């Protein structure tokens, strides 16, 4: 049994980790970390866990945790993991960080987009960007995994094969994304109140969203060139789900069949990526509660552009599901262990 500690188990991403790991055959959560609910029963924080989880929430002490568990998940605000980690801890325990602290390889870029000083730049190089479908072999050997962002996972996976094969002009790429409100976390915030979100849709972080440099960096590795793009997220009145629509100029005249063959080349054997049948547009309902990413595209002959579409559950493949997938790889388990979740509908 893999012993697990979760720092930030009482947030939405941490709560989803608890849901997935409670059902995982080879993992046992022994530490339900929290800041506001110390000594409270976890099932009193999340009533859906009544008679399922009996543990109480505990203080977040990474040093003590490192003695007691095999892996620590940090599902905490930006900056916290970097402020806690050190060499002694990393020599004892593996860490999967759901925040952005170790995703961006250039500390100055992180500091600029996050407005934070990076407290552990010495571990940035070592951290593996945990997008399993792309970095699988590196994840297997990692002791520190930077679990990718929710918008980022969906955006990169949707565009990656075409960037890698030079099919799109990266200078023309625009990514428009929509997220359900759980993406903003459980903390009280006026802009996420029911009356602000319900019957409403709004763009935010226009030209400044912190996921922009993360998407640029990863697609830059794929395309082998510096990528600068527009990324515009929107908040939509639903609980879960991310829908990404990417637009770019094609580098040559191609048929639908050629593009489909490229997606299949990268994803046909990927359990969690479903390239949909011709002309179907992904919908968040088709992936809700699951670790799947649904992808499709449409070539627009009239404009010479391609429209790439992806849908995913932000809390599963966009956070906890991907983190469990990384844990499975790091501990030599079957990659889909605990993740064979059938999407819920309606
Ligand atoms: N929500 C999502 O869809 C996704 C979130 N993420 C990332 O996961 C992380 C958590 O996000 P999310 O769950 O949405 O956020 P929430 O606000 O829902 O949860 C934050 C968690 O962190 C804990 N926490 C806050 N401050 C501290 C602190 N100073 N010390 C210790 N624990 C602290 C909170 O504890 P308490 O409840 O006790 O106050 C809570 O458990 C973020 O880095 C986010 O970017 C990544 C992908 C998707
Ligand atoms: C709807 C919403 O507010 N979404 C969050 C992104 C989700 C998240 O928590 O960010 P990471 O994936 O980087 O960890 C945001 O825009 O900041």
Automatic annotation (TrEMBL):
Residues 3-142 form the Semialdehyde dehydrogenase NAD-binding domain. Belongs to the NAGSA dehydrogenase family. Type 1 subfamily. Keywords: Amino-acid biosynthesis, Arginine biosynthesis, Cytoplasm, NADP, Oxidoreductase. It holds the Pfam family Semialdhyde_dhC_1. Catalyzes the NADPH-dependent reduction of N-acetyl-5-glutamyl phosphate to yield N-acetyl-L-glutamate 5-semialdehyde. One of its GO terms (molecular function) is NADP+ binding. InterPro entries: AGPR (IPR050085), AGPR_AS (IPR023013), AGPR_dimerisation_dom (IPR058924), AGPR_type-1 (IPR000706), NAD(P)-bd_dom_sf (IPR036291), Semialdehyde_DH_NAD-bd (IPR000534). Pathway: Amino-acid biosynthesis; L-arginine biosynthesis; N(2)-acetyl-L-ornithine from L-glutamate: step 3/4. Its EC number is 1.2.1.38. It is found in: Cytoplasm. SUPFAM superfamilies: Glyceraldehyde-3-phosphate dehydrogenase-like, C-terminal domain (SSF55347), NAD(P)-binding Rossmann-fold domains (SSF51735). One of its GO terms (cellular component) is cytoplasm. PROSITE patterns: ARGC. This is N-acetyl-gamma-glutamyl-phosphate reductase. The active site is at residue 150. It catalyses: N-acetyl-L-glutamate 5-semialdehyde + phosphate + NADP(+) = N-acetyl-L-glutamyl 5-phosphate + NADPH + H(+). Coiled coil: none annotated.
